[in-house]
């Protein structure tokens, strides 16, 4: 029986109110050894405690100019003459909020003479998480989604279409639209997790109840609109893998080496320059407001740190900015372990999670960069991280709902605590450990946390505090801009030692991590301004100058020679698929 993640909370945790700035990819995460020490960007060294870095830096006009240039470069010469389809096709947008490299969009155009793009504001996405009743979508991610929809609507209009925005369940909206417009097919991106799969089944059943009359009056010529699901979430296409999902390797390295040796990455779909006309509709609907989404918070605006701009135009602007304008791709591998500032990593993950950015587009841009500028370990490492993201998506196909179970795919038995007060110390950044608290403050304020930070706070919650890993996973589900169930829960199962790879066993020593990745305490001083007055070497180790530590560390001390941490490092991995 399928277990859905939409549910009434199972634990008596008190209802959590979203802090004023609390909602939220990095990308998709997993744990993996990273040996390089990040070099802070120029913006990282700023001592300002109130600075806001917009990502991308370009203003709206600049991002749309870059987007238009990119659209032209990835457009096709396909004309209406090559469009042989007839009738109306519906394009159901889900987590693929883009035009560039959207195969479902292309197939809808090709199979029809009129495309109806639809986005359903599904109330279940704004309900509560399965076990602990946290908001499924927090304020910052809701605001990001609003910006994605506004940008998608604007770009579709440029291509001769529009975006019909309807509030309600897809299984009720789509069959009704199919009947009203006589649509022969509903095209959509294929998903892999239980909630999304259940909606797909319900939509398909609803469409089967819609009878479309053909040109003949004969009853035998009635037919039903079909749901056509298109794979489009990964860099490597699932049909091109050298094994089926049930035989997917449980060790990432085996998976990576196999696909790199035996698979080709498909080219981006080239978009026709005109996708119209759409059906005649009087009211296309408005981009929803926060109130209409049912998300209530004192503020969904970022007060400090990074402010991500939603939408495909911003995504393409960030790729251009990071790869071409700032030329940061060539040093990505050396800087990716940073924690402060906008430029230590690509920051593509929020747009990848919403489908505003295609991983195949990133691949093609990396290859173009390698051809025009330089190929090195850093250019490869961006693709390496995208393969991690693919891996978690394919694992969700293999293991299904076990990714959400306490014992994970391997059904590991472990006694976890669900102490409410201890969890709230972690959630609110009040553990007494500056590195933990600073990362949790960044998460609630911006909806983002570095790859390194995610590893550290996960390890602390499950290893040092002994708290049920699902509490952490569900809180990340609430907060992360780049939330994606496959990567989020896949990484948390790895971090908790219940993942599919039985060799995984990781502990992150906070003193060692602080000494290595925040040696002068700039990161913790930024998010915990009360520490800035301390000497730099004391900011991560403030003793009585900071709040009391809520738990002792599993390993309290670090050898001057690092022998203990070298042993620990051998067992580390990292929140993967996140850039």
TrEMBL record:
GO terms for biological process: photoreactive repair. Its cofactor is FAD; (6R)-5,10-methylene-5,6,7,8-tetrahydrofolate. PANTHER family: CRYPTOCHROME (PTHR11455), CRYPTOCHROME DASH (PTHR11455:SF22). Keywords: Chromophore, FAD, Flavoprotein. GO terms for molecular function: deoxyribodipyrimidine photo-lyase activity; DNA binding; FAD binding. NCBIfam families: crypto_DASH. InterPro entries: Cry_DASH, Crypto/Photolyase_FAD-like_sf, Crypto/Photolyase_N_sf, Cryptochr/Photolyase_FAD-bd, Cryptochrome/DNA_photolyase_1, DNA_photolyase_N, Rossmann-like_a/b/a_fold. The record marks 416, 469, 492 as: Electron transfer via tryptophanyl radical. This is Cryptochrome DASH. It comes from Quercus rubra (Northern red oak). It comes from the Eukaryota. FAD binds at residues 332, 345-349, 385-392, 482-484. Belongs to the DNA photolyase class-1 family. May have a photoreceptor function. Residues 87-223 form the Photolyase/cryptochrome alpha/beta domain.
